[in-house]
Design goal:
The complex is a heterodimer of chains A (about 675) and B (about 500).
Chain A (H helix, E strand, L loop, with lengths): L2 H22 L1 H32 L4 E11 L2 E9 L1 H24 L6 H20 L3 H19 L6 H32 L4 H6 L1 H5 L10 H16 L8 H4 L5 H10 L4 H8 L1 H4 L3 H23 L4 H21 L3 H28 L17 H15 L5 H15 L5 H27 L17 H9 L19 H27 L17 H6 L3 H8 L3 H19 L2 H9 L1 H8 L4 H51 L4 H22 L1
Antiparallel strand pairs in A: 1-2
Helix pairs in contact in A: 1-2, 1-4, 2-3, 2-4, 3-4, 3-11, 3-16, 3-21, 4-5, 5-6, 6-9, 9-12, 9-14, 11-16, 12-16, 14-15, 14-19, 15-16, 15-18, 15-19, 16-17, 16-18, 16-21, 17-19, 17-21, 18-21, 19-24
Chain B lengths: L11 H19 L4 H21 L6 E3 L4 E3 L1 H27 L5 H18 L4 H19 L6 H32 L4 H9 L5 H19 L7 H8 L2 H7 L2 H17 L4 H24 L4 H20 L11 H29 L15 H4 L1 H15 L5 H15 L3 H27 L12 H19 L2 H14 L1
Antiparallel strand pairs in B: 1-2
Helix pairs in contact in B: 1-2, 1-4, 2-3, 2-4, 3-4, 3-10, 3-11, 3-14, 3-20, 4-5, 4-11, 5-6, 6-8, 6-9, 7-11, 8-11, 8-12, 9-10, 9-13, 10-14, 11-14, 12-13, 12-18, 13-14, 13-17, 13-18, 14-16, 14-17, 14-19, 14-20, 16-18, 16-19, 17-18, 17-19
Classes of the chains: A mainly alpha (about 675), B mainly alpha (about 500).
């Protein structure tokens, strides 16, 4: 094993070591020990990633097996790494954001009794995510995929005394199961037809797979594979209609909302599709499917952000919408734009989430925006960094979000794939919606009248359980500010990560757009078929980041964004009565949005109810009658009977034992002699 | 006729153990008061024997004592495993014996002589030393089973074992004489030669094989020669049960390999179909009967019957319609199974010893109730053992089952594989029941566990090894394949 290979191993293993230390020996090493161990682990991973990044920059990529677990039926099950430009970028993003979140957590969780457990989980998450992105085969990809899902489940339900948290983590788990089912089918198809789980070996056969049809059904194989894999991505990256778990995942502590449910895990689906670009490029049907799903998510989830009052939920819906943008980019073969947006989004969305967390701490764990307002005076660092994050999110020129989002919109514009027209409409309107809800949140939280310390609004849905408790302990500091109390700025462990995340949120787009989108960075990693436009047309019109930003000032997306900001300012700063009036006038639409298009209700009635009905039918007729009655209890009785019979033989009398042996010899003799 | 001094070098380990057994006997006679002496000397002997074996280990095959003795890699590897499992078994059992006041020096002398018997079995190249080794091992075991002479159960078990063992020895000896009659040779290569040239009388040969099969089956404890197993396992002191369930299985495996594969490979299809009969019956009966047991030792006895049946699946799928292509794979899977079983068996009986105290046997499944509350660590270890025995992935037992099953499927006996898998599922019930009572039932006796540190440490290592070998089974598999390859 070369030194570089050892270094590759260090990257995932250092956080794992931290997780084990904090998780198993948490009591022994104490709170300080837990955060020192895990932060050290992630810091080592981050530094190693930087070193690997430099190495990859110098042209040294790697693809090889580290450990072979077993070989069966011609398939080999391995742990292997594929270190190339895409991987190393993901490694940097994951380790950097994770490191920031680790530091931030010291401040955010410092009163929580589950301190060590929390650090152990987030380090374990970092390990799993790194295994996912560094994998060179489908099996390890699936392992990482499930492992991040598991940690996400554990963290959403971190406060396991809350029934809502338990409900949310169960929901996340079940919805992801639906996605994983598709994903597993996709992997199964790959294994069955390509006979290998190794990326490179599968990609080498891609064109061969494209000509095949699936047995029995006659479906084009490559389309079936891609759609199955994408269903997995839909679950993990929360695309309509498998998005329902992500807003509810906000029940978890804010640091993990930033790390897992915004910056990294939910982008695993995007990463996976970009990684599989040699397969997806061969199926226009699959790409169109991806495009339409992504466009729908981008626009319609944005709408929902408008009616939310919980600060974290606004950010959550914006995450859904931005994931939709990335998916749209995948659909129009602009994989590098999707990955580019993934990266910029990881920074500014983590920033926004951590900013929201800081606000929540300042407000003493009150998340309702209607109780905020005018916070800029009290929390200057949070205010400025959140403003920067919001500007990046709406795609203000020169900010990182501008470069990535504008590239996606241009790529959609250039594309001819079926569904591109619909997608263009969605992403354009989405720009307005994004700007509107972002700045609605910004104004409600940081500007306007100070509404804290007064009678509280309650988001009826989420704080039912806390409501009564809250009235009983009006001064309890976990439930919002008491009258007269002022919000306060968060400690440095919280503000430093905010500042450190603000830097890439503003700058990274400017510096990396050229190599990532139009340069040769992703050559040989991401494939764009000849029949797809991808980013070619954009590259022709690209004259450097400054020119792009200046040009951006004159284009429709910019004015749509500005329109959104102005409307938000007018509605919430100048005439605060308007939203209520609109709400009254367009009651049905508001109801539709309040209920999130009734997705949850539909799922509950149709899928859950249907499943229950089906289950009941099967239970009564199939289970109790057939399986329990005949198969299970029948066999169990039979087994039990045989077992009892065999006990009868075991009398303890030695002559019977000897007799049995003689009989055995007799049977062997007669049988084999008669056989000849 | 001139006497040639034989080459003692290949048999150095056997000679060393024989001398040490006598030394322990003498030492314990003259230093009766020093209680630890016999134990310490025995452990020293086992460890030193391992060094001697490793030192004398050679890549090639060597014969000595007029071809009665063979030194080869298979024998050396099995001997090392035998020392290893004996040393661990004695270590586990020491406190248990002391609590019951039966840690007499004679016990260790018997253990060493028994070890010597197994070594002779493993390195026999001839029917006679094989038989002598077998008797040496068995006599030691009979005495050890009845060692707790004040316990009616223990003496009864020893008596049964002795009488039935004598019967089985008689059958085996009869079989050997038939083989000699048919082939005119007692040496394995001579037998193989005669069979190959079809010089042997077919009827007499087959007759002999049937009786050999009875003897081997008795030592392995497979149906229908298994009747002694549950009674002896339950009746013997747990420390002795631990010994019966481990090293002798390796010796019996060696016996099966030497007799069947070395001597009678050319009539493989005859004995394979007999093995099929006993293996399938063992898997079925072992798993079904284990379900009805409430005594853990008895349950493990039946589970051992089914495990030995599984091991035989590997031995019976070597030759398919004259094609010997799969032989190495099949036999090494059987060996891997035997070794895995020994490792799991050590841990399972070790757990029973861990929970037992003076005047109390933790041999009922109920005694494991709520173990998680008393000691989460050892509950986890027991869970590893049970999962592994049930063949749940990522434990060594899974790979053991997987390897024999793939051998069976490769040989084309799909129906056997199906029966084996179905029976494993049924078998999972009683293993998982132990896990269930440990984690979900309230403890009968909430007292924390008191056990010597070395037992705790070694048992933990044993449990962890089951998990670790499940993650990296390849090395052990390769060793088994290599050992067989070098001596086939």
């Amino acid at each position: 094993m070369t030194d570089m290979q050892k270094l590759y191993l260090v990257v995932p293993l250092a956080p794992l070591a931290g997780a084990i230390l904090a998780g198993l020996f948490g009591k022994l090493i104490g709170r300080t020990g837990a955060h020192v161990a895990t932060i050290l682990g992630v810091a080592v991973a981050f530094i190693a990633s930087i070193y690997i990044f430099r190495d990859v920059q110098a042209g040294n990529t790697f693809n090889g097996t580290v450990y072979t677990w077993m070989e069966a039926g011609g398939l080999s099950f391995e742990v292997g790494f594929m270190i190339d430009q895409l991987t190393v970028m993901m490694m940097l993003v994951v380790t950097f954001v994770s490191l920031m979140v680790h530091i931030y957590t010291i401040g955010y969780m410092h009163e929580d009794p589950g301190y060590q457990r929390f650090f152990s989980y987030i380090s374990l998450f970092t390990f799993s995510m790194l295994m996912l992105v560094m994998s060179n085969n489908f099996l390890q990809l699936f392992f990482g995929w499930e492992a991040v899902g598991l940690v996400s489940y554990l963290l959403i339900g971190f406060w396991y005394e809350r029934p809502t948290a338990i409900y949310a983590n169960l929901k996340a788990f079940l919805v992801n199961r639906v996605g994983d089912f598709g994903f597993l089918l996709g992997i199964g198809l790959v294994a069955a037809y390509a006979g290998s789980l190794n990326y490179v070996e599968v990609f080498a056969q891609a064109s061969d797979l494209a000509t095949q049809e699936m047995a029995v059904t006659g479906w084009p194989l490559i389309t079936a594979i891609c759609i199955c894999l994408f269903i997995g991505a839909m679950g993990k990256s929360a695309q309509v209609p498998l998005h329902v778990w992500l807003p509810d995942s906000m029940e978890g502590p804010t640091p993990i909302s930033a790390l897992i449910h915004a910056a990294t895990m939910v982008t695993a689906g995007i990463f996976m599709v970009a990684r599989m670009s040699p397969l997806f490029e061969l199926s226009d049907v699959a790409l169109s499917f991806v495009l339409v799903i992504g466009a729908t998510t981008a626009l319609f989830m944005g709408f929902l952000g408008i009616v939310q009052n919980d600060i974290k939920r606004v950010v959550a819906y914006s995450t859904l919408s931005q994931l939709g943008y990335m998916t749209v980019a995948l659909g129009v073969s602009a994989y590098s734009a999707a990955v580019f947006h993934l990266m910029t989004h990881a920074f500014f969305k983590a920033l926004l989430f951590l900013g929201a967390g800081s606000v929540i701490m300042g407000m003493h764990h009150d998340q309702d925006m209607r109780n905020m307002g005018g916070l800029w005076k009290y929390m200057p660092v949070t205010w400025i960094t959140s403003l920067l994050g919001s500007l990046a999110l709406i795609g203000f020129p020169f900010f990182s979000g501008f470069y990535s989002k504008d590239s996606i919109i241009e790529a959609v514009h250039a594309s001819h794939i079926p569904g591109a027209g619909y997608a263009l409409f969605c992403v354009m309107l989405g720009v307005f919606v994004t700007a509107f809800y972002s700045f609605r949140m910004y104004f409600l939280v940081f500007h306007g009248k100070e509404r804290f310390g007064q009678a509280h609004h309650h988001d009826g849905e989420h704080h039912h359980d806390e409501h009564e408790e809250e009235d009983a302990h009006a001064g309890d500091h976990h439930h919002g500010l008491a009258p007269g109390q002022k919000p306060h700025e968060s400690p440095w462990v919280v503000t430093v990560p905010l500042l450190l995340l603000a830097i890439p949120s503003v700058l990274i787009g400017f510096f990396t757009i050229e190599p990532m989108l139009f340069g040769s960075w992703f050559d040989g990693v991401i494939f764009v078929g000849d029949n797809h436009v991808g980013l070619e047309e954009l590259a022709a019109h690209f004259h450097g980041p400054v020119a792009m930003a200046l040009h951006g000032l004159q284009t429709a997306p910019f004015w749509l964004a500005m329109g959104g900001v102005v409307v938000a300012w007018f509605f919430y700063m100048v005439k605060p009565g308007i939203p209520a009036a609109i709400q009254r006038t367009f009651k049905p639409i508001h109801t539709l949005l309040e209920n999130k298009y009734f997705f949850d209700r539909f799922n509950e009635i149709f899928f859950a109810g249907g499943a229950r009905l089906l289950g009941k039918g099967l239970w009564k007729a199939g289970d109790q009658g057939l399986i329990d009655g005949i198969a299970i209890n029948g066999t169990a009785k039979l087994v039990g009977w045989i077992a009892q019979m065999s006990r009868l033989f075991q009398t303890g009398h030695i002559y019977q034992y000897a007799f049995t042996m003689i009989i055995g010899v007799f049977i062997l003799l007669t049988f084999w002699f008669n056989r000849g | 006729m001139n006497f040639v001094v034989p080459d003692f070098y290949p048999a150095a380990a056997e000679i060393f153990v024989a001398i040490m057994a006598l030394v322990v006997m003498l030492a314990s006679t003259f230093a009766r008061g020093v209680r630890w002496l016999a134990y310490a000397l025995t452990q020293f002997t086992l460890i030193a024997a391992a060094f001697v074996t490793i030192y004398t280990l050679k890549g090639d095959v060597s014969y000595t004592f007029s071809n009665l003795f063979i030194g080869d890699l298979l024998g050396d590897l099995l001997k090392l495993l035998i020392y290893f499992s004996m040393a661990i078994a004695l270590l586990y059992g020491r406190g248990y014996l002391a609590d019951r006041n039966i840690d007499k020096p004679e016990y260790y002398v018997l253990a060493l002589l028994m070890t010597l018997g197994m070594m002779v079995m493993v390195t026999a190249n001839h029917m006679l030393p094989l038989y002598i080794g077998l008797e040496m091992m068995s006599l030691g075991l009979y005495a050890m089973v009845a060692f707790d002479r004040d316990s009616a159960r223990s003496t009864e078990a020893g008596m049964k074992y002795f009488v039935l063992g004598a019967l089985a020895s008689g059958l085996l000896l009869y079989g050997m004489s038939m083989i000699y009659g048919a082939t005119g040779s007692l040496e394995f290569s001579g037998i193989a030669n005669a069979v190959y040239h079809q010089a042997a009388n077919k009827t007499v040969l087959l007759f002999g094989i049937v009786f050999l099969m009875a003897g081997i089956s008795f030592k392995l404890g497979v149906v229908p020669f298994h009747m002694w197993v549950p009674d002896v396992y339950q009746g013997a002191p747990s420390a002795v049960t631990l010994i019966i369930a481990t090293a002798p299985k390796l010796a019996a495996f060696a016996m099966a390999v030497r007799l069947l594969i070395w001597g009678l490979f050319d009539v493989a299809e005859q004995w394979q179909s007999m093995l099929m009969f006993v293996a399938v019956l063992s898997i079925i009966l072992g798993n079904l009967a284990a379900i009805a047991q409430t005594n853990l030792k008895r349950m493990l006895a039946y589970s051992g019957i089914s495990h030995m049946g599984f091991m035989l699946l590997g031995l019976l799928s070597g030759v398919v319609e004259g094609d010997r292509h799969y032989a190495l794979n099949a036999y090494s899977s059987a060996m891997f199974y035997a070794v895995s079983y020994v490792i799991m068996s050590l841990a399972s009986f070790g757990m029973i010893i861990l929970l037992s105290r003076a005047g109390f046997e933790a041999d009922s499944i109920d005694d494991f109730k709520g173990l998680n509350k008393r000691s989460p660590w050892f509950a986890a270890m027991m869970m590893f053992v049970m999962f592994s025995m049930a063949g749940i992935p990522f434990f060594i037992g899974f790979f053991a089952k997987l390897s024999v099953l793939q051998a069976v499927v490769a040989a084309g006996y799909l129906w056997i594989a199906i029966i084996a898998v179905v029976m494993s599922v049924i078998g999972a019930f009683y293993y998982l029941r132990v896990v269930k009572v440990m984690y979900f039932d309230p403890p009968v006796d909430p007292a924390p566990i008191h056990a010597p540190a070395e037992l705790r440490v070694l048992l933990s290592a044993n449990g962890l090894a089951i998990a670790a070998l499940g993650l990296a089974p390849q090395a052990l598999m390769s060793v088994c394949a290599y050992a067989l390859l070098a001596s086939l």
